# Entry
Amino acid sequence: MSEDHKKELILRSSFEEMEKLESFVNKLQNQLSFSDAQYNRILLPLSEAVSNAIMHGNKQDPGKKVTITAKSLENKFQISVRDEGGGFDPSSLPDPLKEENLLNQGGRGVYLIKEYADEVSYSDGGAKITMRFILNK
# Structure
């Protein structure tokens, strides 16, 4: 997969659709020849981003889509997740490591994404997240 080529997966806003993520990342792994460790380092934050897009962005509206776009850039791999919601301000999220938040049910997805990806950026008012991974790290 070169910079000119990108792979796209469009999901309905339903958690059942998340089953398609493993197959999508498997195909990317076969094309880019990254390790199983890198596979896991990509799949976990991708799953978190898609889950957030379905739940928070699209409010589980089956009429709305989540678009996943992947492309390679030299020794980097980039994957974006875009929902059809109004977006959010990632800096407004509470720190999940603060004592008062440790027992909260949710709120760790964005933190995990930042821990696993080498670079994370938001655009479209927070409705799109782009994660970059350095391959062969």
Q: What stands out?
A: The chain has one domain: 6-134.
